[in-house]
Structure formats: structure tokens, C-alpha cells
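Human: I'm a chemist; would you kindly supply sequence and C-alpha cells for a protein?

Assistant:
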Amino acid sequence: MLAVLVVILVPLAIIVVPILTHESAGQSNQQETDEQWPVSVTAVGDDGRTRTLSVAGENGEPINTEALVRGERVVVSGAGYDGAQGVYVAVCVIPDASAGKPGPCIGGVPTQQQENVAEGTVQWAPSNWINADWAWRLFGARSYDDPTVGTFTAYLELGDPLGEDADCVANACGIFTRNDHTALNDRVQDVYVPVQFSE
């Protein structure tokens, strides 16, 4: 009985304790850019990290962030992120306040189907979850490319901009990174490239 209890409680503690003990690292302090529709942005967070978020087309070609369409594939890359902390990557409504939480987001909470997928296969989804922790990868998270320098690659297949999750026609939206559910109230990794959908 004790062995069964240990098998249940140890993994539960590995998952729950970091969520309960996480302290906010502050704001992302995303820098303004002269471009209205940039494809790359930078933020120097209160934690001292310089984060860069960039977007490109499916094959690395330049993308028109002012006229995205449903079903379009976008490669999102980040650098300088905290590799010990998971992030969600999705198109979200830009909050009214700079300290506000992004959302709602197209695609809702990210999920990845991991069963019977060959290594190296690109899985496209409306939202992606990046987390280097082995326990969360069992639940469908994609790993950081290099957790030590905080680089990642996410593969978005854009969902319906008028879907149930978010209205990105009536509202200003962006391709966002934000801390995952293990640090929901921590805004330090809230970085976004502003986007707009064509009619």
C-alpha cells in the first residue's frame, strides 16, 4: 500500500509543487517598434532576460502579419526565454492594460497529439505548448530547442479568427508567448508580434 502511495504522490508532487510555489518574475517590458507590422520583436524582462520573438511562413519565407488567413501555417521562433518555465504560443487578443493577461486565444489551451508520431515530424496546431520538463512532455508539451538559452520553435496552423475562443477581427490580436498554467499570473514572458486577419 505504501509503495502504491509513493508511486502516486511523487509524480503529483513533481507537478503540483512548482505551480504552488512559483513567484512572479514581473513584466516583459516589450519594446516599441517603428514598424506597425513587425515580424520580430524584443522584450527585456524584469528578470533581466532579453527575449526575441519572430514569425515566418511555413518554409521560412517572409510573412504578411497584416493579412493572415485561416489555415495559414506560421513558424514562430523564440530566443532568450526561461527554459525552466513552460510557455503557450498562440494568437491571442491583446489585453487593454500592459500588465493584463493575453487572451482569449485562438485554439484555446494548446494540445499536441504525441502518439505514433515519428521523431522530427512537424505537428501543426492552432496553439503550441513549449515545456522542457519531461513530466509535462508526457502530457503533450513540445520541448525547447535548447532550454539553456531558451530557444524554441512552434508551428501554428491558424484557426478561425471568429471562433468561439477569440474574435481577432473585432479585436487587436498578436502571436503571443505567455507562461503556461504552471505560472498563469506571471507576465514576464508575455511577448507578441501584432497580427491582423484579412477579410
Remarks:
- The chain is about 10% helix and 25% strand.
- Residues 2-21 form the longest helix (20 residues).
